[in-house]
Specification:
Elements lengths: L3 H23 L4 H36 L1
Length: 67
């Protein structure tokens, strides 16, 4: 039997996918639009992660420099 937290995560992911599928189906949203939004979202996510890594490296360098 799976842990409760793992089951709730899987349930949340499945609910999210079902909501997206229902939105695509009910609003007749073209798959091309969905794919382009997904690519745009992934690009923004990579930019945010890169900025966080950069600021983390900068803070680490500043801390080592002051000692």
């Amino acid at each position: 039997m799976a842990k409760k937290s793992r089951r709730s995560f899987i349930t949340s992911v499945l609910a999210c996918l079902a909501f997206i599928a229902a939105a695509i189906w009910s609003w007749d949203l073209p798959i091309e639009n969905v794919a382009s939004y997904l690519v745009l979202l992934l690009i923004f996510l990579v930019v945010i992660i890169a900025a966080a890594l950069g600021f983390g490296a900068l803070l680490s360098w500043l801390r080592r420099r002051k000692k």
